[in-house]
């Protein structure tokens, strides 16, 4: 396998394989559950989905490195790195709420070149290759045409892993809520980003997500004609976990609101990252 186009097909197969495992496990009363941290769980379904994805990647691209939610870094540094979330929406899954997904992305250097999100419940496959557009089940997708937050339909996620930043998040939420038509929190960021790429949502914002939550979905949005950034308007969202996304107009409005309240350096002081940002003095 030589390039991104080959890896797009691999990513699609991997996401579907993981999703098949999840569908089979969804009604399993014997689901094994582990508590990783407060409000953060992993199930036997997460691990089984991840094992199937890793098996497929080992067979197809044995020299590539993988960054996975449960296993961490697998393999030596390589030209291509895969970033996978075998089950996003674990709490929904645990409570038998059918809102969960699988995310498989591949980056070359610092640039994500392939992104796939699979919705097992509805059997929808969202795919993007950098420079080649975004599709759902083979049909091209286009970002929302919404020009600003007035009347917008916006998705978000509550920062339960970054509770020290709750006050600034709630102020951003308040300002978005006052302007937008509606705000939704469904509990599966990979699907929120896929729905944003599809134009269902006009925009999305959240703090302190993980790379596997963002890598595929951010490319979907870009390739559908949208904008993605960190709180400063830059491209460090995979490092910081802070994402503003949507149509160009809605993204600009979210950036203006967030920028009036905080920034990456300020949030690093309020909610320190596990790997501190260089040069941040609090």
Topology:
Elements: H1 4-25, E1 33-37, E2 40-43, H2 44-60, E3 65-68, E4 72-74, E5 80-88, H3 90-94, E6 101-108, E7 111-119, E8 124-129, E9 134-136, E10 139-140, E11 153-156, H4 166-179, E12 182-184, H5 189-197, E13 203-206, H6 211-223, E14 227-229, H7 237-240, E15 243-246, H8 248-261, H9 264-270
Parallel strand pairs: 3-5, 11-12, 11-13
Antiparallel strand pairs: 1-2, 3-4, 5-6, 6-7, 7-8, 8-9, 9-10, 13-15, 14-15
Helix pairs in contact: 1-2, 4-8, 5-6
In short:
The chain is α+β, with helices and mostly antiparallel strands and 282 residues long. The protein has two domains: 129 residues, 2-Layer Sandwich (Fructose-1,6-Bisphosphatase, Chain A, domain 1); 118 residues, D-Maltodextrin-Binding Protein, domain 2 (3-Layer(aba) Sandwich). The chain is 37% helix and 25% strand.
Question: Can you characterise this structure?
Answer:
The protein is an alpha+beta fold and about 280 residues long. It is about 35% helix and about 25% strand. It folds into 2 domains: about 5-130, Fructose-1,6-Bisphosphatase, subunit A, domain 1 (Fructose-1,6-Bisphosphatase, Chain A, domain 1, 2-Layer Sandwich), CATH 3.30.540.10; about 155-270, D-Maltodextrin-Binding Protein, domain 2 (3-Layer(aba) Sandwich), CATH 3.40.190.80. The protein has helices at about 5-25, 45-60, 90-95, 165-180, 190-195, 210-225, 235-240, 250-260, 265-270; strands at about 35, 40-45, 65-70, 70-75, 80-90, 100-110, 110-120, 125-130, 135, 140, 155, 180-185, 205, 225-230, 245. The strands form 3 sheets. It has an 8-stranded mixed beta sheet, sandwiched between helices. The chain is globular. The termini are far apart. The mean pLDDT is about 90.
């Amino acid at each position: 396998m030589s390039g991104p186009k080959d890896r797009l097909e691999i990513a699609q197969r991997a996401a579907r394989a993981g999703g098949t495992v999840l569908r089979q496990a969804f009604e399993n009363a014997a689901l094994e559950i582990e508590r990783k941290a407060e409000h953060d769980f992993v199930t036997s379904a997460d691990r089984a989905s991840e094992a199937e994805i890793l098996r497929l990647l080992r067979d197809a691209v044995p020299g590539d490195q993988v960054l996975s939610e449960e296993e961490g870094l697998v393999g030596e540094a390589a030209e291509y790195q895969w970033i996978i979330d075998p089950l996003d929406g674990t709490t929904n899954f645990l409570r038998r709420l059918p809102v969960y997904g699988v995310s498989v992305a591949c980056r070359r250097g610092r640039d994500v070149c392939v992104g796939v999100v699979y919705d097992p419940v509805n059997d929808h496959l969202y795919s993007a290759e950098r420079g080649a557009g975004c599709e759902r089940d083979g049909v091209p997708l286009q970002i929302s045409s919404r020009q600003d937050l007035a009347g917008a339909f916006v998705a978000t996620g509550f920062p339960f892993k970054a509770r020290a930043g709750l006050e600034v998040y709630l102020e951003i939420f308040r300002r978005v809520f006052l302007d937008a038509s509606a705000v939704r929190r469904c509990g599966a960021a990979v699907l929120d980003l896929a729905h944003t790429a599809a134009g269902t949502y006009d925009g999305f914002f959240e703090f302190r997500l993980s790379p596997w939550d963002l890598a595929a979905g951010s490319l979907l949005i870009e390739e559908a004609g949208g904008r993605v950034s960190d709180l400063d308007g830059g491209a460090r969202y995979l490092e910081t976990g802070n994402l503003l996304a949507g149509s160009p107009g809605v993204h600009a409005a979210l950036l203006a609101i967030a920028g009036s309240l905080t920034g990456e350096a300020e949030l690093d002081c309020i909610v320190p990252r596990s790997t501190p940002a260089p040069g941040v003095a609090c």
